[in-house]
Amino acid sequence: MSALAIYLVLDMKNSGEVVTLSPTPIVTPSPTPEVVKDKKDEFIKKMIDNMSIDEKIGQLFYVRYDGTDDALDLGVGGIILFGRDFRDKTKEEVIALTSHLQEASKIKLFIGTDEEGGIVNRISINPNLRPEPFASAQDLYREGGMELVISDVTEKAELLKELGLNMDFAPVADVSEDPNDYIYERTFGKDADSTADYVRTVVSVFKDNGIASCLKHFPGYGNNVDTHEEIGYDDRDVTGFYENDFIPFEAGIQEDVDFILVSHNIVQAFDDMPASLSKRVHELLRDELSYDGIIITDDLVMKGITDLYGAGQAAILALEAGNDMLLSTDYKTQISAIKEAYQKGEIDEEVIESSLYRIIERKIDLGLISID
Q1: Element of type H or E holding 218
Q2: DSSP string of 152-203, one letter each residue
Q3: How far apart are alpha carbons 34 and 77 in whole angstroms?
Q4: Residue-wise burial string across 2-24, b where 16 or more C-beta atoms lie within 10 A, e elsewhere
C-alpha cells in the first residue's frame, strides 16, 4: 500500500468512519503473441504427424460440390458452391446443406462461393436468399463511395455466415480501366492505387466479420481472353506488372488475405507455362511479395488448362509449382494422380506438409479448428 493510501486510511479511522479495504485483484497476464504462436505451431505439427498420407493429400483439394459425399469421404479441405447449389432453395435448405457438409467431414471445411457482386453472384441471384443480387464494385462506388462498399461487404459477410459459408472467392484484384477487357466488369474499374484501396477495404471488412477472402487472379488478368473457354497468352512486359498489376495484391497481402488465386494465363514475361502451373509465378508471390497465406489454382477443369494438359498431369504440375490447394471439379482423378506421384517419389511429403500447415493454420484462424 502506498504512503498516501496509508495516510488516508489512518485519517478515516481517526474520523470514526468504517474503513473496508478491498483485496488487490490478482491479474493473470494474457499470453503473449509469441506464446500463442508457439502453441498453435505445436498443435499444427502434432495434427499433421497424426494424419495419414491420404488425409494430407485430401486436404489440398478445394472441390466443386457434386451433390454427393464422395469428396468428403476423400477428406477434401474445401467445398465450393455454385449457383445450382443455391437455386430455388430457402435459407433453411442452404443451412441444412452446409451443416451436413461440415458434420460429415472429419476436418472442418472451407465452404466458399463466388459472390463478387455484379455479373458474378451465386447466392443473391436467388430471391429467397436476398431480395436482389449484390451490385458490382463499380456500381457501389459510383453510388456511395467506399462507405457503401463497406456496408455491402458487411452485409455479404453476414449472409455468408448465416448460410454456413466461411469464405468468399473475392475480391477481384485485377486492374482494368478498359470496358473492352474481358475482366473489366468484375474489377473496380479504376487505376492500380484505387483498386488497391478497394482490395484493402474488402479484405479488412471480411476479416473483421470472420469470413476468409481470396484475391484473384494473380499475377493480374490484364486484357486477356476468358480462360474458361480458351488458352490465354499475355504478352505484356515485366515492368507493367510491378508498376501496376502487383499493387492491389500487395495491398491485400498487407491485410493478411487468406487466399490468392492464380490464373491460367500464360504470362510470357515470366514463363511459357500457365501461371497456375508456373514455379516462377509462385516464387514471385512467396519471395518478392512476401505472401505466406494459401495459394490456390483457378479451376483446373478450365480449357486454359485442359487444352494443354490432362487432369492428372495438371494436378501434379500445380502442386509442384507451389500451390497449396487445387481448385478441382475432376477431383477423383486428380487426388488419385497426386497419390500415385507421391508413391513413386515424384512429390515429396515435405511439399505436401508445407501446404497442409498453411491450410490448418487458416482453419484455426477462422475458428474451424480449435487448439484448446
Answers
A1: strand 212-218
A2: HHHHHHHHHHHHT--EE---B------TTSTTGGGS--S-HHHHHHHHHHHH
A3: 27
A4: eeeeeeeeeeeeeeeeeeeeeee
Are 260 and 214 a contacting pair, CB within 8 Å?
Answer: yes
How far apart, in whole angstroms, are the C-alpha atoms of residue 254 and residue 248? Answer: 10
CA distance 172 to 101: 27
Least Cα distance to 209 among 156, 249, 248 occurs for 156
Over the Cα atoms of the chain, what is R_g? 24
H helices, E strands: number in the chain: 15, 10
Question: DSSP label at 284?
Answer: I
Give every CB contact of residue 358 below 8 A, 6+ residues apart in sequence.
292, 293, 294, 324
Question: What DSSP element (H or E) covers 7?
Answer: helix 3-14
Question: Whole-angstrom Cα distance, residue 338 to residue 351?
Answer: 12
Q: pLDDT digit string (tens) for 300-317?
A: 999 889 999 999 999 999
List domains and CATH numbers for the chain. Answer: 55-365 (3.20.20.300)
What are 22-64's pLDDT values in tens digits? 444 554 555 666 767 889 999 999 999 999 999 999 999 999 9
**Cell digits for 32?**
503473449
pTM of the model: 0.90
84 grid coordinates: 445450382
Task: Respond yes or no on whether the N-terminal peptide bond of residue 127 is cis (omega within 30° of 0).
Answer: no
Share of the chain above pLDDT 90, in %: 85
